[in-house]
Design brief:
With about 220 residues, the chain is mainly α. It has helices spanning about 5-10, 20-55, 115-120, 130-135, 155-160, 170-175, 185-195, 200-220; strands at about 60-70, 75-80, 140, 165-170. The chain has a two-stranded antiparallel ribbon with strand order 1-2. It has a two-stranded parallel sheet with strand order 3-4. Helix 5 links the parallel strand 3 and strand 4 (about 165-170).
Length: about 220
């Protein structure tokens, strides 16, 4: 008899939505305090990145996209634009070049990415505007990565990852390797394990470990 994928994924007796209110509040306080500090520290990088995108082709600096968040509700995520204008409308044309599995969509050496965008992506600077998503309460610093898909597309196992606010970084970003970079099932497993074993200390270390993880992955 075939085993459904959701039956072998971790159960979530301690999903963030079921945590005591004091723990949820502590995570939110951590996000706000650290988020404000990171925004202040990132101001020079935000300014330089914004100028580079605008000077690159004169197009919009900020890219907005609907993503699936807490409780499978959608929200608008902010990033520095790294692709040519209208890149979303070209996605169907590149469906055959998708290098990812499941609900992920990644095109290796995507020709839609601008020269400036390649630099921003290599250094993960395109993600910096999401700090404002964190301060707004749409996202957390650490959590499952939000995906730009229909909320109804997730199977019951994957839906459990929406028990928490989505994050700028998380277990998948820190632990993934080049070989599993586009592995949807691996991402789901890491996200659910994160929720099962959540703690504020774990959030802190995942945030710290994001820096070497990004640098090592980019070098590879």
């Amino acid at each position: 008899m075939a085993i459904k994928r959701e039956e072998v994924l971790p159960q979530l007796p301690h999903a963030l939505s079921a945590l005591p209110r004091v723990d949820v509040g502590a995570k939110r306080l951590f996000d706000v305090v650290v988020g404000v500090v990171l925004v202040v520290l990132a101001l020079p990088f935000l300014a330089v990145s914004a100028a580079a995108v605008w000077l690159g082709d004169g197009g919009p600096v900020i890219y907005r996209q609907e993503r699936v968040g807490l409780g499978q509700r959608t929200f608008t995520i902010w990033k520095f634009r790294t692709m040519i204008e209208g890149a979303d409308r070209m996605e169907a044309a590149y469906a055959g070049a998708n290098a990812a599995s499941g609900l992920l969509f990644k095109v290796a050496d995507d020709p839609r990415v601008t020269p400036v965008g390649r630099v921003l992506r290599r250094l993960s600077l395109d993600e910096l505007p999401q700090l404002f998503n964190v301060l707004r309460g749409d996202m957390s610093l650490v959590g499952p990565r939000p995906l730009p898909v229909d909320p109804r597309a997730f199977d019951p196992g994957a839906q459990r990852r929406h028990a928490a606010l989505p994050g700028i970084t998380g277990a998948w970003q820190v632990k993934r390797s080049v070989a599993t970079h586009y592995d949807y099932d691996r991402m789901i497993e890491l996200d659910l394990a994160y929720l099962e074993h959540w703690s504020l200390r774990r959030d802190f270390w995942l945030l710290v470990l994001t820096v070497p993880a990004v640098l090592l992955r980019r070098a590879a």
